[in-house]
Amino acid sequence: MSGRVVLVTGGASGIGRGVAAAFAAAGDRVVIADRDAEAAARAAKELDALAVTVDITDPASVAAGVAQVAETAGPVEVLINNAGLVAGGGPLVSLPMEVFDTVVAVNLRGTFTVTQAVAGQMIERGTRGRIVNISSIGSRQPTAGLGHYEATKAAVDALTRTSALELAGYGIRVNGVAPGPVHTPMTAGLMENPEARAAWESRIPLGKIATTDDIAPLVVFLASAQADHITGAVIQVDGGQLLT
After folding, report:
1. Which residues have CB under 8 Å from 119's CB, separation 6+?
2. How much is the pTM?
3. Are 2 and 30 in contact (CB under 8 A)?
4. Is 170 among the catalytic positions?
5. Architecture of domain 5-237 in CATH?
6. What InterPro entries does this protein's entry cite (predicted)?
7. Backbone angles phi and psi of 8, in degrees to 5
8. pLDDT tens digits for 146-163?
9. What percentage of the chain reaches a pLDDT higher than 90?
10. CB of 23 within 8 A of CB of 78?
11. What percentage of the chain carries pLDDT values higher than 70?
12. Options 55, 95, 137, 149, the catalytic residue
C-alpha cells in the first residue's frame, strides 16, 4: 500500500474532515478518529478512508485506538490533533464549571493524551513522524465570552513548542495551525446570522470567514517533506485578523 498513515482526530466533520479529505486526495491512508462512530464511518466511506472510535479524553480509549490503527492500517506516521470544542460561552465569572472542565478535557487533555500515545509509538518504531495541532488565533487575540476556549488553545500552542523541542531528536516534527473563524458545523449559527457574521468579517482585513479549504493546504504542507526544516511553529490562517 502506498501513502502514509495519517490519523485525524475529530475527522468526521468540520476542519478535521476537510483535512482528512486533503490527505486522502494526496494519496495517503487516512484514518478518521472520532467519538461519534456513525459519523466517522460515514466520512470514512465517503473518503475511502478508515474509521476508529476514540474518546480522546480517555487514555485507555486512545491507547486502544492507536493500537487498532497500527493493526489495520499500519503505525501512525502523521498525526493531526484536530478534535476540539467550545461547549458554550460566557463571562469567566459566571461560566459553568462543567463547561470549563469539558473544554479542558477535550482540547488540552485530549491533545496531550493522543500526542503522548502516538509519539510514543513513533519513538518505539523509529518513525520520523509529523504532528500538526489545530489551535486558534484566540490563543493570541481574546474575545469576551470565550476565555475558557482560548486558554486551552494557548495551552495547545505551548504543548506544540515543547513537543517540538522534546521530539526533534527522534526526527519527529511538531507544528500548529491557528485558524481564525472557519465555516464549519460548530460555527453554523454564526454563519446563518447576518449581523453576527458581518461583525466577525468586519474584524478580518481580507473580509471573509475562512472555509476548511483555506485551512487544509497548510496542514498538508506542514506534514510534507517540503516542511522538513520547520518545527515548533504555530502559523495563523486568519485573513489578517491578528493584524487588527
Report:
1. 79, 129, 131, 163, 167, 172
2. 0.95
3. no
4. no
5. 3-Layer(aba) Sandwich (3.40)
6. KR_dom, NAD(P)-bd_dom_sf, SDR_fam
7. -115, 115
8. 999 999 999 999 999 999
9. 89
10. yes
11. 99
12. 149
Cα distances (Å, whole numbers) of residue 97 to 79, 93, 224 = 30, 10, 40
**Helix, strand, coil percent content, the chain, rounded in steps of 5:** 50, 15, 35
Handedness of CA 137, 163, 125, 118 (dihedral sign): negative
Give the closest residue to 186 by CA, choosing from 44, 58, 86.
86
Minimal CA–CA distance to 70: which of 109, 123, 107, 31? 31
The C-alpha cell at 150 is 482560548
Which residue in 85, 201, 204 sits closest to 148, CA to CA?
85
Task: Give the residue among 43, 36, 52 at the shortest CA–CA distance from 20.
Answer: 43
Instruction: Map out the domains of the chain as residue ranges.
Output: 5-237
The CA radius of gyration of the chain, in Å to the nearest whole number, is 17
Write out the H or E segment, with its range, that includes residue 98. helix 97-103
Backbone torsion region of residue 114, taken as left when φ is above 0, otherwise alpha when ψ lies between -120 and 50, otherwise beta: alpha
Through-space distance between the first and last CA atoms of the chain, rounded to whole angstroms: 47
The per-residue pLDDT for 108 is 98
Which set of grid coordinates corresponds to residue 14? 468540520
The one-letter amino acid at 18? G
Q: For all residues of the chain together, what is the average pLDDT?
A: 95
Cell, residue 6? 495519517
Q: Provide mean pLDDT across the span 28-44.
A: 97
On the question of pLDDT at 195 being above 90, the answer is no
